[in-house]
Amino acid sequence: MVLVLCLGDLHVPYRTSDLPQQFKDILLPGKVGQILCTGDICTKEMYDYLKTICTNIHVVKGQFDEDHAYPETKVVKIGDLKFGLVHGHTVIPWGDISSLGMVQRQMDVDVLISGHTHEFRTYAYEDKLLVNPGSATGAYSSKEASTTPSFCLFDVDSTKATIYTYKLKDGEVKKEKMFFEKRA
Amino acid sequence: MEPPSTSPPTTMDQILAAEQDKWLADAKAAVKQQAFYMKKAIDEDNLRDVFKYSSAMLGELRTSLLSPQKYYELYMRAFDELRGLEMFFEEQRGKGHTASELYELVQHAGNVLPRLYLLVTVGSVFIRSHESSIKSLLKDLVEMCGGIQHPVRGLFLRTYLTQTSREGLNLIECKVDEESSTGDAVEFVLQNFTEMNKLWVRMKHQGPVRERGKREKERKELRDLVGKNLVILSSMEDVGVEMYGEIVLPRILEQVVNCKDELAQNYLMDCIIQVFPDEFHIKTMETFVEGCGNLHQDTNVAQILCGLIKRLSNFMENEPETSSGLFEEHQTFERLLDPATKISEKVGSQAAASIYAAILDFAVKTSEGKALGRVDQVLSKCAEALKTADVTSQASRTLKSILTTPLDSYAITDLLDLKSYPDVMQLLSPQMQNAVAVDIIEKILKKGTIIPNVKKVASLFDFISTIVEDIKSEEDEDDVDEEEIEEEQNLVARLVHQMKSEDESIDESFAILKLAKERFEKGGPLRVKHTLPTVVFDVLQLVKRDDDEERCEKMLKFLHSVIEVISEVPEPEKAFKLYLECILVADMKKLENSAYDFATAAFDIYENGIPDQKAQVEALKMLIGCLSSCSNFGEDNFDALSSAATKWSIKLLKKSDQCVSVFSCAHLFNIADEGNSEKVMVCLKRALTAAKQAQGMAKSSRGELGPVELFIAILNKYLFFFDKQEGEALIKAEDVQNLLDLVSNETSSLTTSGAEGNDRALKFYHNTLRHIMSQKEKFPEKYSALSLKS
User: Fold this and answer.
1) Which InterPro entries does this entry report, sorted A to Z (chain B) (predicted)?
2) In this structure, what CATH number is given to the domain that contains residue B738?
């Protein structure tokens, strides 16, 4: 079993000043085995911070990332699940399920993780899973009226995953749980 | 041949030390021997012999051979014997001799030093006898002791007087003697103190100049002999603050100042601070501080003043209520600050800085409510005093602590009212100024403090100007550390989110952000590219929640000016992305003209500013994504924008890029909208052409989509629109089927080659087939015409 932290769209410093303390208190070093980041980390300082949580980190390039070393897409196999990682600003229309579905087919993954919209969403697409962990800092979005800080954790056990979602509402962390299993 | 030496070589110091030990041993033996005879005479009640042998014993104290420390040992030895002698004289008084007779008798001793020791010894018996006024006896003794002018011998004789006169002083205090008053007792101690200090200071000049250092060390060890007098004065219960202020302190200071000796001044001033009560200091502050101003230039006045302030601060901590009343009543702060300022101008930068640090600490601890005004006063005086000084690195550290200490005691928003804070900061090196600025910013971020209005924000910018503005001259440009600047500016950028109206006033927040832009522009290109984007996003947030259309347009117009600055850095890609964000918000607010203006600006950058092909492909993707998210453009405007995007897509250099970009453009048009649905088709067909052209050209390089993948992607796009459309308005099942067959053909030739790109294409293909199957299950009717070859 591996615990995988999935987050993105931090947008520090341009849109917000930091990760909420409530999240920092949860994301202690040594707890997760891998990080899948949907990009728009924006600064080296934030990347270094993520590295303190876990050094095994996969990042794709967001619209405002200036680090050209980040790839556009990335496939990571964890347990028996293939995770696809893409920021999402190149998936047009933004956040569109069918368009994300095409990316899932193209990347040939079981779980496609994308960001950019700053809106948390999990969607069972055919027999696959589309996940958008939202913005971990609750960063402003030019599209959405308001943003709720969020991220999620995958507890991966071979072909199964338990997904814990964390959202910060009115200063309190709300936690939910869901399951995903890859069909044979 | 020289004979081998039998003992290890000895240094000069060791030889001298051995000599000293020998001399001391000899002298002590002599004292012991004469004391033996003296005690024998005492036993025999032989007054004449007692005089004879005690004189001989005390004669040993006339030595000039011993160092002060060795002399001290000898003195202690003799002192022990003198106590027996005093008891003998006391007994003699019972046996018919009067004290005054004995007092006369001892004056016949031959040598002056033994005579004076005997006189002081009998003197204490005399005092106890009530035969004469204590006052006149003490006066007599203290004047007679003037007969010894040798520094060490005189100092110890007077020490003996100090010790033996305690009883007399106590008697005066108990009012046993009507003729003697507390004033007389004080006068005696002050006189003895003055003479002792003179002797002590004179020690410095005895002997060769080259041994001055060693002598000063020896002298330092005798300091408590002089200080003892001050302890005695402080223990006199009848010496109230009035007498202290009018007589005691001025007289002590007179001697301390006049002796012009650094060692004595440092020690005695500290002694005054430590031995007398807090209340005395508070009430006589002016006298003391004035005295400080008259000390020798080598004396550490700063340390003395700091000692006084520290003592007062401790008083505040231990007895907050008593002390604060006293401090306010006697205007301690004011009385401290003004003279301290004068002193600070005469001392070095480190000393001056430490004085201000101590006063600041005092102000912070002692003056609730008034403290901030006082803190500002201290800072103002400090900046003034050190403005032209050469600030040493040690002084800089002290100044830095002056600036950072208040950060822990006060709310930052209150500190921003301190007008002199930036002036003190100016005294530091640029590096240190930066460190303080970083401290301030980190404090604000950590506490989540909101800087709520333009005035406070302006002041904050003054505080941290060193980090915000480009102060480096052009010569330094080579050693600019861009990474360091980036890190600092990211911190500054985060700060912008803390600058906003607390009651959600959009006007106030906007005014703040306008000011921020103005200040950031002074930072030059290296800084603005990190700081200004934050201003853009914070203004966009305001626009998003503002219902006042006119104000929104004003704010959006302002953003043009901000992004232009970023564009001119030059950071065209960043500026381009920011324009896209502006388009989205303006479109959301249905401010079509503004949105169109931003689009025009973005297009201008795309055409003239994006440096290379790869960046153009990226930019175009973002632009298409942005436009496809807009929903409020009028038909004509949107037509112009979408046509431009499509045109540029077709113009891209690589066919694969053309293909992907142009099928993305298909999403710009609403398939349900009759006027536009054709355009979707045009895009898809254009993409197909590009894919075919790509296929005809050389093999794709690594990482790019191969032609087969492009075909599959286009197939997916066809499916997308096929699914979205009503019926078969635009895309016929036949079109999809044709494409499906094409892809099927292309992929069948891939199966055996096994290259990475082929493998990817095959998986993509199979996943697409599964998707179609899934759609057929869900919508059997719509998809019935599509057949999948297995």
Assistant:
1) ARM-type_fold, Vps35, Vps35_C
2) 1.25.40.660
